[in-house]
Amino acid sequence: MNAKHQGLNRTFSVAPMLDWTDKHCRYFYRTMSRHALLYTEMVTTGAIIFGKGDYLSFNTEEHPVALQLGGSDPAAMAQCSAKAQALGYDEVNINVGCPSDRVKNGRFGACLMAEPTVVADCIKAMQAEVDIPVTVKCRIGIDDMDEYEDLTRFVSEVADAGCDTFIIHARKAWLQGLSPKENRDIPPLSYPRVYALKQEFPDLSISINGGIKTFEEAKQHLSYVDGVMLGREIYANPYLLARVDEVFYSDSQAVPTREMVVVKMQDYIREQVAKGEREWHVARHMLGLFQGQPGGRVWRRYLSQNGTGRNPQSDILLRGYEAVQATIEQSKQHFAARNN
């Protein structure tokens, strides 16, 4: 499958995750993978145009990085896309997948699957302002609009407007009766529907998202679609990214060790603290770095206990790593003593 539409390789990407994939999280991910396409958490057009915060800030090391926009007004979407391109983002993605009430009440997210003409108008307005790719992340359906024909109708109209890249979350969104948390597992995923979409629209770049936990599963999906997108699995076990370049991009450069990641991120934290950030704003994204490893629980507890509060410990990552190493050494000594 060819995942190189409009100059970006989309073979493997990390999903936009609200309150999680901020610039610190993305910098952390980039220490482990040079090639994975990273997405911002969703940012609304209202926040960008009227908000006082710097919602589009990112580190240059994050490339390739895409901005995910929430909105439905073509003029506002175009304005924000132009800002994103001027700042150096590599892509702008339209959120047509989030099922939360807050998003729905703002007339963006998954509810827009019922309004393909609105999405098409946004695509046209955005592409008129920028040269970078404008893409769509959506569901396979919403509520009672969950037939395959509903999905193809949506994709066809949006593609006719000029969008050639879709990231499909393979679970329909329930906008009535389920919370977003419940909608993470209900109803069941339908990967074959995404495969069928790629067969019907072979000239489109189709990436698949939802419930993918292992690289073996990801590679199976790549037999049918152009790209895979992982989200919560990467956040829970971020060191998976250290193998992405070799597995998905045939890049055999040396894999960074966890210690190397810790040292690089501690340097980054020092830079951010000098700019007024708190250590915890960065460290919170790193709780899963030792997931499934000896000392993983010690790492999580150390960061949680010493990184929060009014007086967080300085150099928390290095001290946390020392605690992990001390725990491993104690375990080795205990094991040796039992076997002597």
TrEMBL record:
This is tRNA-dihydrouridine(20/20a) synthase. Coiled coil: none annotated. The active site is at 98 (proton donor). The record marks 95, 181, 184, 297, 300 as: Interacts with tRNA. FMN binds at residues 16-18, 68, 137, 169, 209-211, 231-232. Belongs to the Dus family. DusA subfamily. Belongs to the dus family. Its EC number is 1.3.1.91. It catalyses: 5,6-dihydrouridine(20) in tRNA + NADP(+) = uridine(20) in tRNA + NADPH + H(+); 5,6-dihydrouridine(20) in tRNA + NAD(+) = uridine(20) in tRNA + NADH + H(+); 5,6-dihydrouridine(20a) in tRNA + NAD(+) = uridine(20a) in tRNA + NADH + H(+); 5,6-dihydrouridine(20a) in tRNA + NADP(+) = uridine(20a) in tRNA + NADPH + H(+). Signal peptide: none annotated. One of its GO terms (molecular function) is tRNA-dihydrouridine20 synthase activity. The keyword Cytoplasm does not apply. Catalyzes the synthesis of 5,6-dihydrouridine (D), a modified base found in the D-loop of most tRNAs, via the reduction of the C5-C6 double bond in target uridines. Specifically modifies U20 and U20a in tRNAs. InterPro entries: Aldolase_TIM (IPR013785), DUS-like_FMN-bd (IPR035587), DUS_fam (IPR001269), DusA (IPR004653), tRNA_hU_synthase_CS (IPR018517). Keywords: Flavoprotein, FMN, NADP, Oxidoreductase, RNA-binding, tRNA processing, tRNA-binding. The keyword Iron-sulfur does not apply. Gene3D superfamilies: 1.20.120.1460, Aldolase class I (3.20.20.70). Its cofactor is FMN. Residues 14-310 form the DUS-like FMN-binding domain. Pfam families: Dus (PF01207).
